[in-house]
From TrEMBL:
Native organism: Mesobacillus selenatarsenatis
Alphabetical list of InterPro entries matching this protein: HPr-like_sf
Top-level lineage group: Bacteria
Name this protein carries in UniProt: HPr family phosphocarrier protein
Length: 107
């Protein structure tokens, strides 16, 4: 069954290109979808060009929301949150929300 989880992190400093590539690679490994959301802008993390341009606009002291949808996303969300620990501090992790596979949502 698919589930959706999110995590809010506070960005402490700008992202390096190396860190952006690590986020991209972690998102590509997920059997599902990963979105990053900040200041009314959302981007799917599996599109490298969109991800880089999005992360370049994220200022320090900004809240960044990581949203993951798929199967067994909790360990992958934790892994991605750990990738961000040098650049950001974790504010909150929301618990699982199970959805039926026939249902969908739009951001």
């Amino acid at each position: 069954m698919k589930e959706i989880m999110s995590s809010n992190v506070m960005v402490q400093k700008r992202f390096t290109m190396k860190k952006m590539l690590e986020i991209y690679q972690a998102a590509k490994k997920l059997d599902g979808t990963t979105y990053l959301y900040s200041r009314q802008k959302a981007v799917e993390a599996t599109s490298l060009s969109k991800l880089v341009s999005f992360l370049l606009t994220v200022e320090p002291n900004t809240t960044l929301k990581i949203i993951m949808e798929g199967t067994d996303v909790e360990p992958k969300l934790n892994q991605l949150t750990k990738l961000l620990t040098n650049e950001a501090s974790v504010l909150r992790v929301k618990r699982k929300r199970l959805i039926e596979s026939s249902e969908s949502f739009q951001i």
